[in-house]
Amino acid sequence: MVKGIYSKKVMAHFKKPHNYGKIKNADGIGNVGNLVCGDVMRLYIKIGKNKNKQEIIKDIKFETFGCVAAIATSSAITDLAKGKTLEEAAKISKTQIVDSLGELPPIKMHCSVLASDALVEAIYDYLSKNKKEISQDLAVKHERIAKEKEETEKRYKDWTDMEKKMLG
To answer: pTM here?
Structure first.
């Protein structure tokens, strides 16, 4: 791939994103962002049960403010997670997201991390709100995401203060 050029799959997801939108009364919501590049992702999940009575992601939607790669990775993760158990969905990696899209330019790989993190946060939100058991792996991922957010907010305090004022 020529640097800076997106694959056909990336462009297809960007032009016609899958599962775009908001779920009213979502069971879990994941909010992540990158203050440096400006990408912001919000991922909504609705939980159901499969034939084996396991909790699965019955519905999933996203709202993303960001670049081509941010929108494409958000769309791709919804396809990968829909119908999966919460445990399976929480293990979806940035590599799986990129593989499903064919490829991403190296400078845009962080978008796949954001998409994966948004799903982790939505699952964590659902489990914690419903006082359900949170696996050690999921707890570790959530702690990493929270720590990165805290460090970024400290580093870019002026930006975050301005954003808080704007959002009221």
So the answer is: 0.88
